[in-house]
Amino acid sequence: MKEKKSEYEKVLQAFALAKSFIKQQIELGFDEVYAQMKTKTNQRPPTSLDEFYHQIKNCKRCHLGYSRTNFVFGSGNHQAKLLLIGEAPGREEDLKGEPFVGAAGKLLDRMLAAIKFKREEVYIANILKCRPPENRDPRPDEIETCKPYLLQQIKLIQPKIILALGRISAQVLLQTKNSLGQLRGKIHDFNGIKFLVTYHPAALLRYQQYKKFAWEDLKFLRKEYEKIVDS
Ligand code: SF4
After folding, report:
1. What pTM was computed for the model?
2. Which residue minimizes the CA distance to atom 2 of ligand 1?
């Protein structure tokens, strides 16, 4: 019995080591992340977003793949300088297979228009590609499984600036537990890309009092964007 237990402990220890190795590889950067995906999917690195979409559109690497209606890859300009990253598809997005198409999507369009962007100019993606049931927050295991896809999208798009929409996408990508209030109003670095944070449009629909702060964030984003375009 004692022998069996020690074998079991060895397996657990090996599993913990493997997990921490993979995490470290993710933190190292895009190429390492893709190397992991390649091992898991046995596919060559994609050279375009379209190719990547076809590689992963039937993904069932986590249980959300079994409850979704549609896989929501992302949409917009494949050469966008500005990339917007939300949390996960909601009910409308799950039904249509497109990010930000419900009431929050309409507000996002108005937010973009207020700083002179059209949706077609930017690219919009989420941390998760499939809807968590009842719109609950994404779980750490779902994020860990799906995040390499987003990192690969970032590698293919090569944006100059990223705007995180909401606490979860900001915390996941910046690997921090800081609050949204602490993260917004600053320029962060994400693998050499300027990274800004603002409220998720769905939160702005519920809490109107945050709109004035979101407006500040949007003006800040436009200013930083123009610096990049002019340089
Ligand atoms: S959420 Fe991501 S990892 Fe999970 S099934 Fe969907 S695409 Fe795959």
Report:
1. 0.83
2. 146
Instruction: List the structure tokens of 136.
Output: 């609950």
| Residues 6 or more apart in contact with residue 56 via CB below 8 angstroms | 41, 71, 73, 129, 149
pLDDT digits (tens, 9 = 90+) for 2-13: 445 456 565 555
pLDDT tens profile 170-186: 999 999 999 999 999 99
C-alpha–C-alpha distance, residues 134 and 88, integer Å: 12
Query: Any idea which residue has 């228009």 for tokens?
Result: 113
| Most ligand 1 atoms within 8 A of CB, residue of 130, 147, 149 to mutate | 130
Cα–Cα distances in Å, from 110 out to 18, 175, 193? 45, 29, 25
Angle 211-230/103-114 helices, nearest 10 degrees? Answer: 50
**CA atoms of 215 and 198, how far apart (whole Å):** 9
